[in-house]
Amino acid sequence: MKFHDLFVDSVSLDSFLVSQFGIDVVYLRGHSGRFNELRVSATEAPESATATGRFMRSVERTLEAAVRVYSSDQSGHESNLDRLIFHTGGPPFSHVVRKLEAVVWEGRLEDGDALCVPFGHQSEGPARPHLVLELLRPSAVDLLTWVARAARSRPQLQEPAPFFAPLSVQASYVDDVRRAVAEFLSSRQLLEMLRRRMNGQAPPRVIGGETPSLPAASAQDDHIAELTAPRALHFLAKGASFGIHTGGKHLDFPNEALPVLLTLERGAPITIGELRREFASEIDPGDLDDLLDVLAANAVIRICAPRESS
Q1: pTM, two decimal places
Q2: For residue 227, what is the enclosing H or E element?
Q3: For residue 227, what are the β-bridge partners?
Q4: Strand (E) or helix (H) holding 69
Q5: What does each C-alpha distance from 89 to 39, 86, 125, 253, 285 come to in angstroms?
Q6: What radius of gyration, in Å, describes the C-alpha atoms of the chain?
Q7: Helix, strand, coil: what percent of the chain each, to 5?
Q8: Which fold has domain 3-136?
């Protein structure tokens, strides 16, 4: 089960992300039984259980936000986080979503349905048996904290504050700081820069039951290379090389490796045999194995038997 599978018969994933995610309540009807595996695996250690953990990793990569299981029995309070509610089996139940006391959505969730409830809404329904995920998205406080760290690179913002100077000097100092901060905040790419920065620092999600990655040289053609990077990969050009930020690390590779990483980002899970055939004429087999081992060692991918793949 992957997050994008929720959007087969309703609003498109792109439409959801651009115009509705975090803004409107979104009801996603689904076929009976599609979340049953999540219910079974969530009965114990839900954040690391195999099926639930892998589904959460799919949510995190798609929505670019950390995810946790909501475990409180409380209902009806206003949430300061986005929530995803999944009916994981059993009889239907009623659910009501309010904002500022006004009912904005009311209905019954059937087995296989999902409900996306944005920040700032009151969500009222039974505590169980459904699975509720909360999204830890960055706020303005995170943005300002990051801006403060970035400000250290500007010499004019490192000057001591003139606490004992005349008020006119203090006012001029504050004006200079205000202009420097305003100039920094005026970038139209500021949120994109913050998003990529936080994505690059996201820790990998360790999922219960996963076996360690196999060495590429010992992998058979039917073994699987699957992505374990916590966020989608962004590639930073550097002349004859490129870099990626992932899991709090910065990794550099020669440009010859870029087609392999693009194939993994767009096509994984993929068999080792498919990778070997696709790049047989472009990359030495030993170099391809070395590249895959580096990616596995840095939690970008995992090489495993087909039965162990998500």
Answers
A1: 0.84
A2: strand 224-227
A3: 301
A4: strand 66-69
A5: 7, 9, 15, 46, 47
A6: 23
A7: 40, 20, 40
A8: Jelly Rolls (2.60.120)
Domain boundaries, the chain: 3-136, 140-186, 216-308
d(CA 103, CA 185): 37
Label the pairing between strands 102-109 and 131-136: unpaired
With contact defined as beta carbons under 8 Å apart, do 97 and 25 qualify? yes
Q: Is 236 helix (H, G, I), strand (E, B) or coil?
A: strand
Beta strands in 72-167 (DSSP E): 82-86, 93-99, 102-109, 114-117, 122-124, 131-136
Helix H or strand E encompassing 242? strand 241-246
- Length of the chain in residues, anyone? 310
Q: Would you tell me how many other CB atoms lie within 10 Å of the CB of residue 281?
A: 6
CATH architecture of 216-308: Alpha-Beta Complex (3.90)
Per-residue pLDDT of the chain (310 residues; tens, 9 = 90+): 889 889 876 678 998 999 899 999 999 999 999 998 887 665 566 666 788 888 999 999 999 999 988 865 545 555 688 999 999 888 999 999 999 889 999 999 999 999 999 999 988 887 666 888 999 988 888 888 888 888 887 777 888 999 999 999 999 999 988 888 888 888 889 999 899 989 999 998 888 778 899 999 999 999 999 999 999 999 999 999 999 999 999 999 999 999 999 999 999 999 999 999 999 999 999 999 999 999 999 999 999 999 887 6
Instruction: Give the DSSP letter of residue 17.
Output: I
